UniProtKB/TrEMBL annotation:
One annotated GO biological process: carotene catabolic process
Record keywords, A-Z: Cell membrane, Dioxygenase, Iron, Membrane, Metal-binding, Oxidoreductase, Transmembrane, Transmembrane helix
Name this protein carries in UniProt: Probable beta-carotene 15,15'-dioxygenase
Pfam families per the UniProt record, alphabetical: BCD
Key word Magnesium present: no
Organism (species): Halapricum salinum
Tree of life domain: Archaea
Membrane-spanning segments: 21-45, 90-119, 196-214, 226-249, 293-315, 327-352
Biological classification of the source: Archaea, Methanobacteriati, Methanobacteriota, Stenosarchaea group, Halobacteria
Amino acid sequence: MSEHATRRAVLWRTAEVPGGTALALSRIALAILLAGFALATVVGFDLSLRVQAAVYLFGMVAMNLPHGGFEHFDNLRRRSASFQLRYVGLYLGSIAGFVALLFVAPVAGLALALGVAIAKGGHGGLHVMDATYGTDHLQTRPQRALAALVRGGAVMCVPIVAFPETFHTFSALMVDIFEPGGLAAVSQYFPLTRQLIGVGFGGLAIAHLALGYVRSAGTGSYVADAAETLLLVAYFAVVPVVVAVGLYFPLWYSLRQVARTTAVTSDPAADGEETADGLLTILDSDDTRLVALGAWGVLVAGSVATFGLAALLWLLSPQPLGGGGYLLGGVAFWSIFVSIIALPHVVIGSWFDRERGIWYVP
C-alpha cells in the first residue's frame, strides 16, 4: 500500500485497521457533539446546568461504569490466585489512601482527582494507538509521555480555560463534600492558575504535534494522532464541560478500549501470562451453565462492591452533595467517587501490572 493510501486508511478507512469500527465510532461521536454544540453556540442556545448534569450522570453511571469493571474482570481472568488477591488488596489499599487524603486535605485530593483523569485518558489512549494505527512517530519514552500528557490533558486543561466558571463551581462542590468552603482559601489564585495551565498546555500540545511531525515515518500514525489530538482539544473547548466529560469516557475512552481489545484479540502474537488456578476458572468451564452462573456472580459481586463503596463514602462525608442539590451535587459526588476508584484503575491496573494490565498490548 502506498504512503498516501496508508494515511487514508488510518485516518478515514478505519475498517482496515484492527478495531477500526470502534475507532471510527469514537471519532464520529465526538465530531457530531462538537458540531452540534458549535451550532448551538452560534444560534445562542444554552443548555442548563441541570440538563448537563443529567447527561453527565447518564454517561458516567449507566454507560461508562460497566466498562471500567469489565477492564479489571478481563485482566484478572486466567491469572494466578495469589496475583488476583494481591491485585485486589492493593486496589482497596489505594482507595483507602485516596479517601483519607480527601478528608485530611480535600484541595490536594481534588488536584489528585484531576491528575487521575489526565493519566487515565492519556495513558489509556496511548495504548489504543499502540494496538491500532501504531505509534512509530513516538520514538522515545519522553515523547510517549508527552503524547499521553497532551491527549489526557485535553480532558481537564482545556475545560479549565474554556469554561472557568463552571469548572470552578463543580470544583468547589467536590471540595465542599469533605470541607464546606474549603476551596475558598485558594480560589483567589484560580485566574492565574487558569492562565498558566492554558499557556503550559498550549505549549505542550504544539511540542507534541511538531515533534511527531518531524519524526513521522509516513505510515499514517502521525496524521491520525494529530487529527485526534486536535479533535479532542476542539471538543473540550466547545462542548460544555459537564457534558463533555460525561460523554467523553463512554463515547471515546471506552469505545477505543474496545478497539484495543479487538486488535489484541485478533493478534496471533498476543501471549499474555495465563494460568488455570485462579479464582475465576469457572468462567473457562466447558459447561455453559457454570460460565453463565460465574459471570452473573462476578457481575453481582462487582456491583455490590462498587455501590457499597459509594454508600460508605456517602455516609462518611459531612456533606455528600456539597450543598449543590441532587443533580449538581450528584455530579460532584460521582466525580469524586469515580476518581477514587480510577486511581487504582491506573496505578494498580496498569502501572503495577506491567506484564499485562488493563491496557495490555503485546
